[in-house]
Amino acid sequence: MKYADYEKWTARATRWIKTxxxxxxxxxxxxxxxxxxxxxxxxxxxxxxxxxxxxxxDDFERIVPDGLTHWQHPRFFAYFPANAAPASxxxxxxxxxxxxxxxxWQTSPAATEIELVMVDWLRQALGLPEGFKGVIQxxxxxxxxxxxxxxxxxxxxxxxxxxxxxxxxxxxIYASAxxxxxxxxxxxxxxxxxxxxVKIDTDANFSMRPDALQAAIDADRTxxxxxxxxxxxxxxxxxxxxxxxxxxxxxxxxxxLYTHLDAAWAGSAMICPELRPIWQxxxxxxxxxxNPHKWLGAQFDCSIxxxxxxxxxxxxxxxxxxxxxxxxxxxxxxxNEWTVPLGRRFRALKLWFLLRAYGLDGLRxxxxxxxxxxxxxxxxxxxxxxxxxxxxxxxxxxxFQHTPAxxxxxxxxxxxxxxxxxxxxIYLTQTAHAGKFVIRFQVGQFDCTRDDVMLxxxxxxxxxxxx
Length: 467
Hints:
Layout: H1 6-23, H2 53-63, H3 86-98, H4 109-125, E1 133-137, H5 140-155, H6 160-163, E2 171-176, H7 181-189, E3 197-200, H8 210-222, E4 226-233, H9 245-254, E5 258-262, E6 287-290, H10 292-295, E7 303-307, H11 311-317, H12 348-382, E8 387-394, E9 397-402, H13 409-423, E10 429-433, E11 436-442, H14 450-465
Parallel strand pairs: 2-3, 2-4, 4-5, 5-6
Antiparallel strand pairs: 1-7, 6-7, 8-9, 9-11, 10-11
Helix pairs in contact: 3-12, 4-12, 5-7, 5-11, 12-14
């Protein structure tokens, strides 16, 4: 294929996309294929000779759609959303064509400078104070890893990268049991180890208990361990739990712990001023991560890490060999020095398009509607005799069980979930909470409506009645 053919095939791709979205509500949300079905349709070896685009596109239409779980489906209520607003999609098309490798300022000044401005726009949108800087990471997992590496280096006097961890004191990281598994993985990758990630007990509202945190720190110091950092949570993945930040941050400050706030999903909701009391004290955190690719409509991948003072993370992450230096421009910002990967995509362009195309007011309206509709559905289920809410609405997320009289609730809930996802009209996922198998329900798909959310009630009650 040549550049001269590009317009023809992008036009065909655009027609396919238009049809895809027009027919999406009629498709089952979760892929209905069995493991191996799609792979079986592909040749076992790569082609030796070039193939015509006509054949390639025909094969795409024949093979790929059957194996898709439709994350942009208006009745995708599983996991958290990974949205792709139309304005973001257009920006991504331009980004793909430009194909800039934005590792340095000089390798794409526009990518670097627009990123810095977009991060500041979002700082303002979330109500964080001036002085916070930031960077676009690929995902919250990478931001969390960067924060944990910074915790490690800071606790070791910034010597770990040079001398390694062998024979050094054991570092301890603290977090509640409600944090995401990416915190566990960050401790693995950073060489701190799973045993040194200390999960702190929570209170009746599933917020980390300050007294339990202080007791754990005191016990570790007595045992000769070195407390290094604290990971806090706003809107945890399982049930949407949030830590009460200020009392925990008081302890962190007294104990000289570096702090990271995981607000990957719920951070987007902080564009709504009335929700900000939930993360009161966030401005005191050293590092904060939230994902515009979840609830704000930015195409995956796009995760913002805010830093109250970037110097510790830069001291941890930055390498500047001669071939990465910008001659005569020592003061420019090279954002690869803030992250693990050297290579960087032009992710800021989709934020620029997105924020302008919908405005903060339009995005706030969506989030407020999602929370309202989720609450309405939770209320209806709570009055049904065969359903029990397990955790209350937190932002737009709640959990429930199918509890018909005389049945084992875990088993009945698991069976209902399977029937729901096989049925295809909606898509839900599960979690374990307080020893129970529960179904999570969250509203967040960019273009879902109240009717889509209320249809979930009809599907759940219909399939429960037919058990």
